[in-house]
Amino acid sequence: MAEAHGLIIMLLIFLEKLSHSKVLLADANVTCIIPDDCLLPCSFRPVGTVVIHWYKQQTPVHSYYYNKDQFGHQNKHFSGRTCLFNSHIPQGNASLLLRRVKVQDKGRYKCYTSTRKGNQEMFVNLEVKAVIQSVIMEMTEETVTCSSYNIYPVPQVTWATDPPSAQEALENSTIKTTDHKGLFNVESTLRILGNLSNYTYYCSFIAADKTQVWIASWKNQEGIIQEEGLALSIPCIALDSSQNFSLTWTFTSSTEPTVILRYDTKTRHSFNLWEGQAELDQDLLLLGDGSLLLLKPDIEEHSGTYTCTHSGLQSRHIIQTKVNITVASIIVDDRSVQRSWWSTAASVAFFLFTITLALPQCARQKALKTRRASQRYNGAGFVEDGLHKHLNTTARYIIGPHGDECNGTQIKFEAQDELAGCTPNTAEDETEALPEATEEEQEENPVGPLVEGNDGQPSCSVEREEFENIEPVHTS
Length: 476
Ligand SMILES: *[C@@H]1O[C@H](CO)[C@@H](O)[C@H](O)[C@H]1NC(C)=O
Ligand SMILES: *[C@@H]1O[C@H](CO)[C@@H](O)[C@H](O)[C@H]1NC(C)=O
Ligand SMILES: *[C@@H]1O[C@H](CO)[C@@H](O)[C@H](O)[C@H]1NC(C)=O
Ligand SMILES: *[C@@H]1O[C@H](CO)[C@@H](O)[C@H](O)[C@H]1NC(C)=O
Ligand SMILES: *[C@@H]1O[C@H](CO)[C@@H](O)[C@H](O)[C@H]1NC(C)=O
Ligand SMILES: *[C@@H]1O[C@H](CO)[C@@H](O)[C@H](O)[C@H]1NC(C)=O
Ligand SMILES: *[C@@H]1O[C@H](CO)[C@@H](O)[C@H](O)[C@H]1NC(C)=O
Ligand SMILES: *[C@@H]1O[C@H](CO)[C@@H](O)[C@H](O)[C@H]1NC(C)=O
Ligand SMILES: *[C@@H]1O[C@H](CO)[C@@H](O)[C@H](O)[C@H]1NC(C)=O
Prior knowledge:
- By secondary structure, the chain is α+β, with helices and mostly antiparallel strands.
- It folds into 4 domains: about 110 residues, Immunoglobulin-like (Sandwich); about 80 residues, Immunoglobulin-like (Sandwich), CATH 2.60.40.10; about 100 residues, Immunoglobulin-like, CATH 2.60.40.10; about 100 residues, no CATH class.
- The longest helix is centred in the last third of the chain and has 46 residues.
- It binds 2-acetamido-2-deoxy-beta-D-glucopyranose (9 copies).
């Protein structure tokens, strides 16, 4: 057996030297998305057995000879991440599947194939990119910050306002750092000049290849003051309702931000923590108006900062509004005027009655009536010294210093973007060990290496303990 192999190899070398038929082709250009799987194309004219070697510069990436994968010389960097389409090799397919592509995989690869009809070198330039998956926007009293993580290559960040400001006025500082994987984290901070209110601040993250633009915006809307009990609409007009989006209302008072309402136009899934207290008009929402209606606002429960977040495919727009629910002003309405008129008239009649007819008998009853009237007076809301009375019935009339607790400027909106176009397949797992596939298994599995999951065996290979001692020689 070994003799036969040796013979074949010598024959291959001989033929190689004899033919010198190297085929030169233009480099193929491939761009792969981190951390997806990546196909490096290569094909050859199939004639009998083949020797395949993939290199990145001088680094051995993957080898195949004696009709099987050979891992003896594979560089550790590629360990467990490469495979060929073994069942397609007899048809001349030497393409390499590189799994969970990384920044460091970027470069020029050589696919060397050798058959008895000659050998061939093909080159593939691999570009990699990690797409922008979210933009996080934060606002403080003095600054507005946009950040995005795990991007490659480094994106460009720009700022704008509405109404527009001069570019010079937008004093920004952008910090770009790389993590251990070589991915960029970008954080850009803009100093707020002049009035905070009524300006919409926009930041854009533009991918290096310009194929992606993410936009985030923040607007601190003018505060709303409303009397308790009166329905109130907090405006949130979406900038772009043409695509699928989700809308989230968040409420912050003294505590952590709470998501009170959420609606997704794509799934039509909705969530309302304040059922019966707050609502969205879903028809208006589909037209881009996500204003929140507070049905019967309450001083204690509904005063605070309301944040409307509109998340589209590559956008996130935030509108923040401070809402101050105040004590209801005391209105003496017609009915109570009438009631007091009637009661006055009744009192007069009663008084006349008592003095003319029943004075002696009713002296005791009159005293009782007076006491009852004064009780009614109190019940109408004149709690003169009631500022801190926490009686259940009068609590709604208490004016308290709740304002200091409204501290909504620091909310973070993390990206949990169900709508984002690209979903990375798996988390990084450097030590992943794939089940070792035997050749028999591979043959039973016509789809070969592409099958991944519980049932199929990825024939993307693990390092093998044993490998052939005899290395086919190749010329390059
Ligand atoms: C790949 O890109 C290089 C330069 O960027 C170019 O010269 C070459 O023609 C491209 N190859 C193909 C197949 O387009
Ligand atoms: C090789 O086979 C794979 C899997 O079927 C396919 O995706 C790829 O396009 C093929 N490549 C060539 C060069 O034929
Ligand atoms: C932000 O800063 C960069 C460089 O730091 C500058 O080129 C740019 O003009 C600044 N302004 C805006 C609006 O991006
Ligand atoms: C800022 O707002 C105040 C009142 O809210 C106004 O008087 C002033 O003109 C505003 N300044 C700018 C630069 O818009
Ligand atoms: C903010 O905008 C609203 C509506 O666009 C306007 O009524 C209000 O006067 C503006 N406030 C300031 C301070 O510019
Ligand atoms: C919204 O999502 C649905 C469901 O995925 C899709 O069919 C539709 O084309 C999307 N619409 C837009 C405007 O992207
Ligand atoms: C308020 O009402 C609750 C139950 O309704 C009761 O347990 C509590 O004692 C009341 N508080 C006052 C101050 O009356
Ligand atoms: C709410 O409005 C009342 C009355 O206008 C005022 O006294 C109070 O300070 C306001 N609270 C906040 C948080 O602005
Ligand atoms: C408001 O924000 C500031 C700045 O982060 C923080 O120091 C302070 O504790 C916050 N106050 C409340 C009541 O949350």
